[in-house]
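#struct-queue
[09:14] JT: dropping the first one here, sequence first, then the structure tokens:
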Amino acid sequence: MDDEQAAELAVALASLAGREIGPDEARAVVAHAHTLSPGRADVIWSRHRRAPRTVPLRDYLAMTLRFVDRGPP
């Protein structure tokens, strides 16, 4: 998926989570997803499983974009 599609997906996912983000925030999420290491994504996922409300939206969205971009195993 290209960055534009990823930004659109980030906006849609944020909306599903009950939050509105604009194009600038969506681009920031995509940039964050590009720099997110697998280890950091695992930390975010573990934290989200234990206490979802403690995970910043940008981290959650970036982790989700990484997961979606990876495709099926």
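[09:21] JT: and here's the second one, same format:
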Amino acid sequence: MLWSDPENEPPEELRDMQDMLRRLGLFLALAMVLAMIVLGIG
């Protein structure tokens, strides 16, 4: 890394994308649990 490089702050889009992916992962995990429960009951 060069001294002249800026601080490695992630760009705005990258942060938004990571946030969206985190929410998507949470949603998918919840959906999986729900599906397991429904299949278990069914």
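[09:30] RK: nice, looked through the second one.
[09:31] RK: Residues 9 and 15 are 10 Å apart (CA to CA).
[09:31] JT: good to know. The chain has one helix and no strands.
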